[in-house]
Amino acid sequence: MVIKWSPLAIQSLEEVYDFYLAQADATIAHRIITEIRQETRYLLIFPTIGSVHEQNGKATMYRYVIKHHHKILYTIKKNCILIAYVWDTRRDPKTLAKILKQQINKEV
Questions:
Q1: Sign, Cα dihedral of 100, 93, 7, 4
Q2: Which residues pair with 89 in a beta bridge?
Q3: Are 89 and 102 in contact (CB under 8 A)?
Q4: Who has greater pLDDT, 103 or 54?
Q5: In the 8-state DSSP scheme, what is residue 103?
Q6: Which residues pair with 67 in a beta bridge?
Q7: Could you give phi then psi for residue 106, rounded to 5 degrees?
Q8: What letter would DSSP give residue 6?
Q9: Partner of 52 at 20 to 30 A CA spacing, among 16, 62, 71, 87?
Q10: What is the distance of C-alpha 68 from the center of its chain?
Q11: Mean pLDDT calculated for residue range 70-91
């Protein structure tokens, strides 16, 4: 099994980097990104370690793990773990619901 990052997940990780670059500096931004990426390695050993992501009280196809203020959303596919999105938990959850809905529609 391997870990794959969706284009949306890569974009969201870049946004996290840009945020910390503006708020702190390149060293801290790089450390945060590295720690988020390293957190996903545990999924290779324990793919179901993450909690099931719920929306409006209903389970979705996503699971998640938390690192710092970031929810790492992923799905377990046949041959890989697909990182779908990295979400800053300090943002409005309604926005996350819209993003995930768009992502599901692209996959279908």
A1: negative
A2: none
A3: no
A4: 54
A5: H
A6: 70
A7: -70, -35
A8: -
A9: 16
A10: 12
A11: 95
pLDDT of residue 72: 98
Q: Residue 46 carries which side chain, given as an amino acid letter?
A: F
* 85 closest CA partner among 12, 33, 17, 19: 12
Rounded to two decimals, what is the model's pTM? 0.89
C-alpha distance from residue 45 to each of 29, 40, 55, 99 (Å): 27, 10, 27, 28
The pLDDT of 44-67, averaged and rounded, is 94
Look up residue 25 and give its two tokens: 């500096």
Domain 2-107 sits in CATH 2.160.20.10: no
Residue 45 structure tokens: 């050993």
Residue 28 has a pLDDT of 96
**Looking at per-residue confidence, does 61 or 105 come out higher?**
61
| Structure-block tokens of residue 3 | 């870990």
| For the chain, domain boundaries | 2-107
Residue 104 contacts residue 6 (beta carbons within 8 Å): no
Q: What are phi and psi of 77, to 5 degrees?
A: -100, 180
